[in-house]
Predict the structure of ABC transporter permease.
Amino acid sequence: MSRIYGVAGFLAVIATTYIGLLAVTFFIGRVVPVDPVLAVLGDRAQASAIERVREQMGLNLPLWHQFFIYVRQVLSGDFGTSVLTTNPVMADIAHVFPATLELATFGTLIGTVLGVPLGILAAVKRGSFTDQLVRLVGLAGYSIPIFWLALLGLLLFYARLHWVAFPGRIDIVYEYTFTPITGLFLLDAVLQRRWDVAWDVFRHLVLPASLLGYFSLAYISRMTRSFMLNELGQEYVIAARAKGLSETRIIWRHALRNAAVPLVTVIALSYAGLLEGSVLTETVFSWPGLGLYITNSLQNADMNAVLGGTLIIGAVFIALNILSDLLYRILDPRTRAR
C-alpha cells in the first residue's frame, strides 16, 4: 500500500510540475509587451479587423478561460501557428529540435568522457599541481563567455587552420541531395552509408559540440572530484587499503561505483542544460536548432513560437530530471528501501 501511495505521490508531483510550467509560459505570453493580434495583422490594421481577430484568438475572454483553452490546446499538441514561418509551431519544433538534440548529445558525450576521468584524477591527486590544473580548467569553463570562445574557435580552426567547416549544419552541396531519416544528420548519413556526407556533417558538428562539451566538462569534472573525495574518505576505503587491495581497484571498482549514483543526476542535468542553453552557440554557428529558432522568433515578435519552444525545453528539462531521479532510485538500493 505504501508503494502505491509513493507512486501516486510521484505522479502528482509530475502533474503539478507540468501544470506549473504551463502556467508560467501562459502568463509570460500575457505580460510581454507584444500584442499577438498586431503581430499577425500589422500595426496598420483597422480597428474592426483587430477586434475580430482578438475574438477569434479568444483574447477577449476572462484570463482563467484563456488559460483553460491554452492548456487544452497544448495537451492536444496545438501550439498555434508561427507568424514567421506560417507553419504550425509544433511542426517547426519537430523540424529543428533534432539539430539541438544532436549538438547537445555530442557535447554531453565529450563532457562526460573527459570530465569524469579528470575529476577522478583531481580527487586522487588532491592538492597537487594536477588537481590545481583540473580545477583551473573547470573554472575557466564557468567564467569564459561561450560566444567569445565560439568566435575565437571560428577564427582559429576555420579561418586560419581550415580544420572545420563553415558555420551551419551541412554543406550546400549536400543540402538538396541528402534525405534525412531521423533528423540526426550524422546518424542518417551513417545509416545510408553516405560517408562523404557523414564527414561533412562531422566537420560542421565538431567545433560547436566541443565548445558545449567543454562547458559540460567543467561542471562534470568538478562534481566528480567532489563525489570522489567524499567516497575516498569513507571507512570502507580505509578498510580496503588495510586489506591490501590495489589503489586502482579501490578507485575504479569501489569508490567510483558509489560516486556514480549521484553522478548520473549531474550528467542528466548537464545534458538538460545543453539542450536549453545552446542558444548563443547555435546563433554564432548558424546552427538551425531550437535555440536559433526561438531567437529568430523573439526578434520577430512571434510569441506562439517563443512560448512553444520554451514549453518544449521546460518539458524536456523536467523529463530528464524525472529520469535521473528514477535512475538514482534504481542504482541506489537505499532509496528503494525508504
About this structure: The chain has two domains: 2-75, 89-336. The chain has a mean pLDDT of 84. Residues 2-75 form one domain. DSSP finds 16 helices and no strands in the chain.
